[in-house]
Amino acid sequence: MREDRLLLSGALRPTRRRRGRRRPCVPFALAGLGLAALGFAALAEPAPRLVWNASASVPVGLYWVSRAAPVRGDLVLATLPPDARRLAADRGYLPAGVPLVKRLVAIADDVICAVGDAVFINGTYVATRRNRDSLGRELPRWTGCRTLAADELFLLMAGVSGSFDGRYFGPVRGAMIIGRLVPLWTG
């Protein structure tokens, strides 16, 4: 009986949907998703797929950046640890924000040592370190031996004495590897 009174007063009047009118939710939702995708694309740093190497420590040329997991001996494209990145940019070794090309020479469970001017991997001498760069500025040094952890890698251009690599900044985290490099054209 109470419902009848409420119906008569209009308080519980059933609502009817008018024909021809659509709810604007779907277009607004699609527009919102589109804007979110554009925002993500603008903020995300795209990983390079092709790299031109102009450094003398690796053959100059064009390289494909493969997403395949690198293995010992591969050339890789990597970012530097923060301190080494600042030093490389300040001294002009590498422009700020530019990744470097190096060879992956040691992986998890390998033992790397830096003793005096010598660098060893698993007890085998692999490279010499300089005390100063070509302009006479002191180079950073790490000293001692350590077994690389599961997420650590050692990058080194063993045959290039002037290379700014792991002999000066030590091991890097696996997350710093952008990809494995495959030469497309080198000169």
UniProtKB/TrEMBL annotation:
<protein>
    <recommendedName>
        <fullName>Peptidase S26 domain-containing protein</fullName>
    </recommendedName>
</protein>
<dbReference type="InterPro" id="IPR036286">
    <property type="entry name" value="LexA/Signal_pep-like_sf"/>
</dbReference>
<dbReference type="GO" id="GO:0006465">
    <property type="term" value="P:signal peptide processing"/>
</dbReference>
<dbReference type="Pfam" id="PF10502">
    <property type="entry name" value="Peptidase_S26"/>
</dbReference>
<dbReference type="GO" id="GO:0004252">
    <property type="term" value="F:serine-type endopeptidase activity"/>
</dbReference>
<feature type="domain" description="Peptidase S26">
    <location>
        <begin position="28"/>
        <end position="185"/>
    </location>
</feature>
<dbReference type="InterPro" id="IPR019533">
    <property type="entry name" value="Peptidase_S26"/>
</dbReference>
